[in-house]
Design brief:
The complex is a heterodimer of chains A (about 210) and B (about 200).
Chain A (H helix, E strand, L loop, with lengths): L5 H9 L12 H6 L4 H24 L9 H23 L1 H7 L10 H9 L6 H31 L1 E2 L2 E2 L4 H4 L10 H30 L1
Antiparallel strand pairs in A: 1-2
Chain B lengths: L5 H11 L10 H7 L3 H30 L8 H23 L1 H7 L3 H5 L2 H12 L4 H29 L11 H16 L9
Helix pairs in contact in B: 1-8, 3-4, 3-7, 3-8, 4-5, 7-8, 8-9
The chains are: A mainly alpha (about 210), B mainly alpha (about 200).
């Protein structure tokens, strides 16, 4: 298998091979952290870095690990970076760390990290693996930011804690409480997925029509 | 945190704070497996067993080793190793004791290591400062809640397969919407009691 170029990897991870919308990975945290834009930002930046560095590390040692025991190496490498991330967050952004709660630790079992270190890193050299991990994280970030930008104003009337709606929006009780709660996240991610997939299908149909 | 009695906790972890529908944990394997009722059932039961065992083992490690020696920042390492070990041990025991159960359950066991519901429950146990008994009850209740959600969803997906779903929404999309409706139904329980 030939090594893909940096540009190919970037395009794949952000569009037609998006980890959330196409591969349907990492849904747990997608749903859980998107009710506030600032939480989403920190979480997705952390996630990109962890995926990138874990892929980089595992790609360096890819010839040294026996296939049978690779799982435990993956998990330990990922855990190492997540522990680092958690210590950094606790030191510099304690409030965010508290409101994210267990979800920072849960990056370990985030399927995106597992998926990239399982499929891409063992087959490719370190630098491109680092880039692949970071761009997967960016693809994840794009979807999550879109969701949180919809959820936060409707739920709290703010974006990044700056008010975008007049204060009466929340105080009068007209805000969409459902946007704070669980069901809205399921509906939103499904809607985004629907729009994205329909666009892909329409494009594919146009292409098939054009080459006829 | 104030003390929650175990029966309340059991009820809360199954219904009001359902691990899947309110805390969004274990969604990935949920979407992948809920295509089929019998595999959902098998995986659900395996999750219950692994959750009870890993909370029962992680609690003494947290309160007996990590906290006294001031090493709480290593908690994630400890938990992930406990979970992997429990899953591995369970796989070996089931293979010896009951080959037929192993055949039906075996392939789902390794999947559980990467199931965020397990690590999530163990982390909630730490954050909410549960006692040993509370932790085990919480683990059991969360497992039952997950099992219930996945078997129900598998039954619904069977019907949805026959329905005319728009092309772009097939597969994961419609499953997520189904889960959204289930979550809305579970929101109905939320006025009864709450654990934070």
């Amino acid at each position: 298998m030939s090594t893909p170029t940096f540009k190919q990897v970037f395009r794949a991870n952000l569009t037609y091979d998006n980890p959330v919308l196409v591969q349907v990975l990492g849904i747990c945290s997608t749903l859980a952290v998107t009710n506030k834009v600032d939480n989403t930002l920190i979480m997705t930046i952390g996630m990109s870095l962890v995926t990138g560095f874990a892929s980089y590390t595992l790609s360096w040692i890819r010839h040294l690990i026996a296939r049978r025991v690779r799982m435990i190496f993956q998990v330990l490498a990922i855990t190492f970076y997540v522990v680092l991330l958690q210590l950094i967050l606790n030191a510099f952004a304690p409030e965010v760390a508290r409101s994210l709660g267990p979800y920072v630790g849960l990056i370990i079992t985030n399927c995106i990290v597992m998926g990239r270190t399982e499929t891409f890193a063992p087959a490719n050299p370190p630098l491109i693996s680092l880039w692949d991990g970071i761009t997967s994280g960016l693809g994840y970030m794009a979807v999550l930011l879109l969701m949180s930008v919809i959820r936060e104003p409707l739920a709290f009337g703010t974006i990044l804690n700056f008010p975008v709606f007049p204060p009466e929006y929340v105080s009068s009780g007209n805000n969409w409480t459902i946007m704070i709660m669980a069901p809205s996240a399921f509906f939103l991610v499904a809607a985004i997925m629907w729009a994205f997939k329909t666009r892909t299908l329409v494009k594919a149909a146009a292409k098939a029509g054009g080459t006829k | 945190m104030s003390y929650v009695d175990p029966i309340t906790l059991l009820f809360a972890s199954i219904f009001t704070s359902n691990i899947l529908l309110a805390n969004f944990l274990g969604t990935c394997s949920f979407i992948a497996i809920s295509k089929d009722i019998s595999s959902s059932n098998g995986l659900g039961i395996a999750v219950i067993v692994v959750l009870v065992l890993s909370t029962a083992i992680s609690w003494p490690i947290l309160h007996g080793i990590l906290i006294p020696f001031n090493m709480v920042y290593l908690d994630l390492f400890a938990y992930i190793i406990v979970i992997a070990a429990v899953v591995q041990a369970l796989e070996m025991i089931i293979e010896r004791v009951s080959p037929s159960l192993y055949m039906s359950l075996g392939i789902y066991l390794p999947l559980i290591v990467a199931n965020c519901a397990i690590l999530g429950v163990v982390l909630f146990m730490e954050i909410r400062n549960y006692t040993f008994f509370q932790s085990v009850v919480f683990g059991f209740g969360s497992g039952v809640g997950w099992w219930m959600a996945i078997t129900t969803a598998a039954a619904m997906r069977k019907k949805i397969d026959k329905a005319p779903v728009p092309a772009g929404l097939q597969g994961a999309g419609i499953t997520l919407i189904t889960m959204g409706f289930m979550a809305m139904a579970f929101v109905g329980f939320s006025g009864i009691l709450r654990i934070q």
